Structures are given as C-alpha cells and as structure tokens.
Amino acid sequence: MATRIDGKAFAASLREKVAEGVATFVAKAGRKPGLAVVLVGEDPASQVYVRNKHKMTVAAGMESFEHRLPADTSQEALLALVDQLNADPAVDGILVQLPLPKGLDENAVIQAIDPDKDVDGFTTASAGRLATGLPGFVACTPLGCLMLLKDQLGDLSGKNAVVIGRSNIVGKPMAQLLLQESCTVTIAHSRTVDLPAVVRGADIVVAAVGRPEMVKGDWIKPGATVIDVGINRVPAAEEGKTKLVGDVDFAGAEATAGAITPVPGGVGPMTIACLLYNTLEAANRREGLA
Ligand SMILES: Nc1nc2c(c(=O)[nH]1)N[C@@H](CN(C=O)c1ccc(C(=O)N[C@@H](CCC(=O)O)C(=O)O)cc1)CN2
Prior knowledge:
Elements: E1 3-4, H1 7-29, E2 34-40, H2 44-59, E3 63-69, H3 75-87, E4 93-96, H4 106-111, H5 124-132, H6 140-153, E5 160-164, H7 171-180, E6 184-188, H8 195-200, E7 204-207, E8 225-228, E9 232-235, E10 242-245, H9 250-254, E11 259-260, H10 268-286
Parallel strand pairs: 1-11, 2-3, 2-4, 5-6, 5-7, 7-8, 8-11
Antiparallel strand pairs: 9-10
Helix pairs in contact: 1-10, 6-7, 6-10
The structure holds ligand LMY7XDAE.
Residues 49, 95-98, 120, 140-141, 231, 244, 263-265, 268-269, 271-272 line the site of the ligand Nc1nc2c(c(=O)[nH]1)N[C@@H](CN(C=O)c1ccc(C(=O)N[C@@H](CCC(=O)O)C(=O)O)cc1)CN2.
C-alpha cells in the first residue's frame, strides 16, 4: 500500500518557514512584503481561494492588498489596475485570479504583469526564464508538486517522469522543473498513443488533465510516485451530494504506487503556500536581499 503524501501538513510547515523569512525581511527592510490579489466577478470557487489567500498572507505576516472588481469590468480598467500595481512600491507580488469572466482577454492581462512581480509565474517572461534556467518565478502548482516529490524521493536524477497534460500553467512548467532535476521527461496528452503503456514506464507520474479518475490503478508501475493535480467535483454516492476526486483513480493506484497524493489534501494546499513562498522571494529580490 502506497504512502499517502500529506500536502496539507507540508504546506502548513512551508507557510511557517515563510513566516520566519517574513520576520527576517521586516527586520532588514523595515516594511512587510506585499501581495496584491485581483478578483474579477463572483465565481464561487475563486471567491473561496481569494479569501484563503488573504487569510494566509496576513497569517504569514505580509501585507494583503485585495482588489475585487465587478464581472462587467472592462479590459482597459483591469489593465490600468495591473499597471498601477506594477508601479506600487508596496506591492512585491501580483496575482490575477483565474478564470476571468468571459469577454476579458486573460492572456493580455497576465502579460501586463511586471515579470519581477509575477509570483504566479504565468507570464511568458517567467516561462522563458524557467525554460532557460534563469532566475524567475515558477507557477505555484508545479512548484508545489516538485517540493512534494523532492521531499518524498530526494534526488530525482535519472528517474523516468511522465507528465500527463500540456497546459502552460501546470504541464509544461512541471516538465521543465523535472528536466532541471535531470529526469527523463515525457509529456503525454490527448493524442498520446497507448497512454497506459507510457505511464507504466514511469517512476514519477504527474497527472494534470482535469478528467476525473482517468489514470487507472493498473497503469501504475509498482513503487512509482504519483502526484495528482486534478481537482474535479463529481456526484457522490449520496443523492444530491458532490465530492472531490483527482485525475487518478486513487483506490486503484494506492494499491500499486509507492507514494501518492490524495485529493483533497495533496497538491491543492501547496498552491497557496508556494504563492507566499514566491512573494517573499519577490520581496527579497526587490530589496536586494535574495
Ligand atoms: N491566478 C491563479 N488562478 C488560479 C490558480 C493559480 O495558481 N493562480 N489555481 C487555481 C485555484 N487555486 C488558487 O488560486 C487553488 C485551488 C485549489 C486549492 C486547494 O487547496 N484545494 C483543496 C480542495 C479545496 C476544496 O475543498 O474545494 C485540495 O486540493 O485539497 C487551493 C488553491 C485556479 N485559479
């Protein structure tokens, strides 16, 4: 039976370490690191995530600047706010909560963020820095996955890693991070031929496809480490109720894997902890303290 990787506990201890780093920063810089979060519209899940970001930012000793805008905000107004935050010396990190309401150009808004404040790691500048090994910010979810993997396995070099999913936000940066760790990396996607066979060759599986329980237990190589990025809400057995499942059939994979992240309580909590980690890093760099 696989070890369950406790992302919730790991994230809590990372947030504590960030809080210690924040105290050191405040002592040296004479100010708090600042994180600005922009939420447009009333998407219920986004509201919960933004509320949690605010609470955890404050708990880590940082300044939280929350900007809530109505769903009918224009592209121009949103870009003007991003410009204002880029210029604000109290703001070290900027995050625009995704998804944006229909009608807004997500890519244009993200690219408007100053790469030195891009604590979400979503700008093309950040992606380019990661791909070429330059210092920059790595998107929080893949960064969290890497931290969990290194904590579990130590040195990753020479491991066969399969990343299922090729999104700019998770799949591609995850593959870059694993390559940097000297893994042999395969990026699998919807056109991959014989996905089960590809996954069976992997020592490390990162599933980020957004399809509930798509990766089956008998695809997993015995002893492999499985990182499940999926957060899918599906109907529960009880009438009218729902539950969260990942992209991996947890019960099936748990029997064969060496270690596996659960959903919830695996990768998800790492996302906000890594956001705080990146914000502290941004503040240190801006003050020449990194
Ligand atoms: N600008 C961004 N937008 C979005 C990001 C992001 O990193 N940057 N990621 C997601 C949402 N997200 C943070 O914003 C996020 C998602 C999930 C979790 C989490 O802790 N999930 C829990 C389950 C929560 C639940 O019960 O519903 C878990 O997996 O254990 C935290 C943050 C999209 N938008």
